Amino acid sequence: MKIAIIGGGSAGLAAAIAAARKGAKVTILERNDKVGKKILVTGNGKCNLTNTLLSSEYYYSKDKGFIDRAFSRFGLSDTLSFFNGLGLLLTEKRGGIYPHSEQASAVLDALRFEVLSLGVDIKEGCFVKDIEACKGGYNVYFDRSLEDTFKSDKCFFDRVILTTGGKAAPKTGSDGSGLKIAQKMGEKISDLYPALGGVKCEGDFWKSISGVRCYAAFKIIGDTTGEGQSVGELQLTDYGISGIPVFCISRLIAEKIHKCGKAEIEVDLFADADDETLLREISSRLLVLNDRSYEQILCGFLNKKLSIFILKKCNIRPSDAFSDDPEIIKRIVKTIKHLRVFANGVNGFEQAQTTAGGILLSEVSDDFESLRNKGLFYAGEILDVDGICGGYNLQWAWSSGHIAGEAAAKC
Ligand SMILES: Cc1cc2nc3c(=O)[nH]c(=O)nc-3n(C[C@H](O)[C@H](O)[C@H](O)COP(=O)(O)OP(=O)(O)OC[C@H]3O[C@@H](n4cnc5c(N)ncnc54)[C@H](O)[C@@H]3O)c2cc1C
Questions:
Q1: Containing domain of residue 247, as a range?
Q2: Residue 148 confidence (pLDDT)
């Protein structure tokens, strides 16, 4: 059984290992000069490869049951055993699983060594342009490999697994060319949005608070999915908001902007206390420090740049003496805890970590085989599944890649 795996990213490498272990003759066709380029940049170079809290609730998809079924076949414990079996020592940090060396390159090395020891043929510098169904399999058309080891620009395979990723981080090789091939093969593809990226907001004040980080909670106003909330370390930038909690809801914000032109977001800049507690804390300062300015009273509550920004938002001069007017204190607390901003854009695919949308799950079987093209499989980010931050997208790549690889080798 000759299997072509188009795209040597995380899903492709997982599929290659699974198929080769089942005895298939596997060839990976990768456009870059090396496989796994994206793996090297994951988790800030540390590679958060899965999460101890694994469930479909951490994914966006029209069919969460499909994801649950996939995880029941290859889930968290299978992923941990798989990497342990490759000799990779793992460690856990707040639920995220990383290589103990905290080097993403260790994950790629472990996968590459296994692929090579299984005798998988890796064709690097090989851009696949098209595939075409033919008797008993598929012809795969490609631009000649740099090594020129293929004699022609066409090769026959019994089965094909398309693991070319989505459109996020195109510098790593995933520019959507695989989705065009899938579309040509008749698969239905949903709208695509950049996900897990920063959010651009209206206002000319962002530069003044750029660089500030703080613990914050977010709520998309008018969200009907029940998923438009998150909490964690906010990063303020010169264009708006960023950081993991923003990444987690950025695809919902993108959808809302797509439909309504903008999205209103409530930011709680003091998320570890409720309104009353914050009000009490600020008021108690006034009892002993009644000769201080607004800026001085807020010292230590928020980053200084943020305090000044909040006071200006309340039309208060930071250097003015603090008034004990309870209405003014309430106004300050309301602005800190219920800051409303309007998002009018999300960072593009260049800065996004993943793609929202892709080939609809209704197009594939539970084995990840196309329902309309027998012998053609899909795995990874190319499918209409995207997870929140925390190892969920790589877990989807390992799970779907494994199941597709085994199934392709068997059928
Ligand atoms: C900066 C960054 C940080 C991230 N951090 C994390 C993290 O810590 N944890 C996590 O779970 N997820 C993380 N992700 C997301 C995760 O890396 C991806 O969802 C996952 O790698 C997708 O795997 P894939 O194999 O489907 O696609 P990809 O990894 O994109 O692989 C696709 C491969 O196909 C190749 N290819 C594309 N088109 C063709 C073609 N026409 N011919 C031949 N080859 C082709 C590409 O060169 C590429 O090698 C991060 C993403 C980014 C960008």
A1: 198-347
A2: 56
